[in-house]
Design brief:
Elements (H helix, E strand, L loop, with lengths): L2 H7 L9 H15 L8 H9 L11 H11 L4 H13 L9 H7 L2
Length: 107
């Protein structure tokens, strides 16, 4: 290691972070992962998506599929199925089959 690199390690580095703003950003991230607003407009969004569509109708609104995609960053497919089942059990969504049903919609 050169002596120029050694000089750097002894210096104190001041962090210029607005901790209040950073905390708020983390809270908003948590709100994003649990945004259940899609359930309020489930039928309306599906109706709009299926208007004029030929073939098999969409079963899930895009907002729900997008939320499941965000959750998939943290949970595997069978975990998503568990989340979907619980949402249906709590009557936040009308139904949920298995983890492949949301995948079928996007193919």
């Amino acid at each position: 290691m050169s002596s120029s690199n050694n000089k750097r390690w002894g210096k104190h580095h001041k962090i210029h972070r607005d901790w209040s703003k950073y905390n708020d950003e983390l809270v908003v991230r948590g709100e994003f992962y649990l945004d259940l607003g899609f359930s309020e407009h489930w039928d309306e969004e599906l109706e709009e998506m299926n208007k004029g569509k030929r073939g098999s109708p969409y079963k899930f609104p895009n907002q729900f599929v997008n939320l499941m995609a965000a959750w998939h960053q943290l949970v595997d497919y069978r975990g998503l199925e568990g989340i979907g089942r619980r949402l249906a059990e709590y009557k936040l969504i009308p139904y949920f089959g298995d983890y492949t049903t949301t995948l079928e919609q996007n193919t």
